[in-house]
Amino acid sequence: MPNYLIQRLLILGGLSIIGILFMQSYWLLKTWDIKDKEFDQSVNIVLRNVAQRMARYNGSILPKTGLIQRRSSNYYAVNINSAIDPAILEQYLIQEFSNQAMNIDFEYAVYDCFSDDLVYGNYCSAENNTLNQLKDSKKKLPKFDDLVYYFVVRFPSRESFLLANMKMTITFTSLSILAIIFFVYSMWVILTQKRLSELQKDFINNMTHEFKTPLSSVKIAADVLANDEEIKKNKRLHRYTQIIREQNQRLNDQVEKVLNIARLEKDSIELKKDIIELNQTLNEIVTNEALKLPDDHIHFQTWHQPVFVMADKLHFVNVITNMIDNAIKYSPNNPEVKIILEEKDAIFVHIKDNGIGIDKESQKKLFDKFYRVSTGDVHNVKGFGLGLYYVKNICAAHGWNIQVQSEPGKGTTFSIVIPKQLKI
Question: What is the average pLDDT score of the chain?
Fold first, then answer.
């Protein structure tokens, strides 16, 4: 994956994460605020009902304003302007909380005007619908000097009660956080793999460049030996010399393929386009490649008139040579290769063979880097799986298309399609 795509992915991913975190935080706080308001309204209803029942019980009149005062997030004072019986108060509180379906623990205290103190009443637990008698005289709750006859109610478990009512929101928030963690981990893995891949590519490229010097030295030495008169007289030594030259050239070709692929991946390959006539160029290629097979096993069918295109001749020759080499390698029995040039709605260069053919599944991966068509248990086909990857990229760089038609056992036809607008 190119570096600029990774940078864009990181930027977009980072912005997405920030957006998700912002929205989740906003909705979490918003939900908390809504639940808190609902809680406050429910508590006000309960305490108002209790105050009204206490007023009816005492035969008193409730104040018109300031009846229920929220002194903190979980602490309420109820000013009823009459004497309060703690036992009756507790009974009313439990009943009204039950009527409102508020299963929450609470504790209450009643102001004693004679002792000028807030007397702790009880801690009421809704968990098992029983009362915990914790009448601890040392339990202190804040009192208020601006009220005379009042009682206070405190909710120690308010936060957990609100959180329990936000299970769905918390669940979705947790899933979002897990998704973000997974995305961050995935990006870390991608970046790690990218770094390792770059190190591997640099190593291969450096190693391949280092091969060029000894290969050149071997070529020079082999040429000197091949031209030596004493070596020419000795058929066995002359044959060994030819083997050295052939294998050196083969290794040099493989090194060039690796270097060309490295240039393609770095987008540093430059096409030097010139006007070439396809009939002539293809005929030259066939003449050179014909040496690899017996006579009349590579055929070239020319077009009846000259066909000129703008192309990098070196890379065009390499593309056609690669496909001829593939046709020979995958045609084990008496290879027959036919190259056909024709012009219809576009310019077509067909390379047809009588080889083993390619199944539909393999055709989908044919132009992938390092992919090689399986030949079963026979491993006599050599190569790195870079040839068609190179062909595909060179065709794309020229604005051409490449197609393949094949059936197992019936040979393969590769077609380079050059659009008419690229014709000279």
Answer: 82
385 φ/ψ sector (left φ>0, alpha ψ -120 to 50, else beta): left
Q: In Å, how far are 200, 227, 310, 354, 365 from 374, measured between CA atoms? A: 26, 41, 36, 17, 12
Q: Assess whether pLDDT exceeds 80 at residue 361.
A: yes
Task: Provide the residue ranges of all domains of the chain, joining segments of one domain with +.
Answer: 3-164, 168-265, 274-422
Q: Which residues pair with 346 in a beta bridge?
A: 419
What DSSP designation does 231 have? H
Q: Quick one: tokens of 42?
A: 């429910």
421: phi > 0 → left, psi -120 to 50 → alpha, else beta; which?
Answer: alpha
| Local confidence band at 140 (pLDDT 50, 70, 90 cut-offs) | low
Asked if 384 and 257 count as a contact pair (C-beta separation under 8 A), the reply is: yes
> Reduced to 3 states, what is the DSSP secondary structure of residue 408?
coil
pLDDT tens digits, 68-88: 999 888 899 998 878 888 889
**Contact criterion met (CB below 8 Å) for 389 and 326:** no
CB 272 within 8 A of CB 310: no
H-helix or E-strand containing 79? strand 75-79
| Six token digits for residue 339 | 């190259």
| Across 280-309, average pLDDT | 84
Per-residue pLDDT tens digits for 182-236: 888 888 887 888 788 777 777 777 777 778 778 888 888 888 888 888 888 888 8
CA angle 165, 170, 171 (to 5 degrees): 110
Banded model confidence at residue 414, pLDDT cuts 50, 70, 90 = very high
Q: Domain 274-422 falls in which CATH fold?
A: Heat Shock Protein 90 (3.30.565)
b/e code 69-97 from CB counts within 10 Å (16+ = b): beeeebebbbbbbbebebeebbebbbebb
Tokens matching residue 398 = 């020229």
Here the tokens at position 99 are 């009527």
Residue 333, class by beta-carbon neighbours within 10 Å (0-12 exposed, 13-18 middle, 19+ buried)? exposed
Q: How much is the average pLDDT of 133-162?
A: 74
pTM over 0.70, yes/no: no
Token look-up 């990218």 returns 194
**Cβ neighbourhood burial of 286 (10 Å; 0-12, 13-18, 19+):** middle
| Helices vs strands, H then E, count in the chain | 10, 13
Which residue from 300, 285, 318 is spatially nearest to 392, judged by alpha carbons? 318
